[in-house]
Amino acid sequence: MNGWRILESLHGHAGVLAAAALAHPAILLRNGAPLSWRSRWSVGLTAGFVVAAFASGLFIYGAYVEKLRVQLFLQNERAGLLFETKEHLAFAVTSLALGAGVCALAAPRGARALRRAAAAAFGVAAVLCLFTAGLGTYIASVHGFGAVTGTQ
Fold this sequence. Notes:
It is a single chain. By secondary structure, the chain is mainly alpha-helical. The model has no long low-confidence stretch (mean pLDDT 91). The chain is built from 6 helices and no strands. Helix content is 86%, strand content 0%.
């Protein structure tokens, strides 16, 4: 198994786990109550985990462009276009998670509406992240790094 395939797999798993992690602060903040120190840790770690999953995708992106992109489009143009869509959705998920995290953590104690808005943003990010992970799984099944070494 080549190193890029392992990194691709880890990135995919991180994406699925990020979707699950995003659901936690969405549930936690839904009533708009002030955050405890545990809730603050949950919000911060979730945002950090989403950024880490996104960063892992950025890390393998250069190798993807060099080794796979053209072949993916030649093999299945729709999958190639879905990959481009996946990139944009991943950016949206990361932006929503960071925005929701800042909103939740910086909200004044009496700002229940801000924490509810953060919960909604985390919820939207969770749904988009799950969809993004699904797209990534489909795309990797069409033509991932395993196809480069013939181990897919």
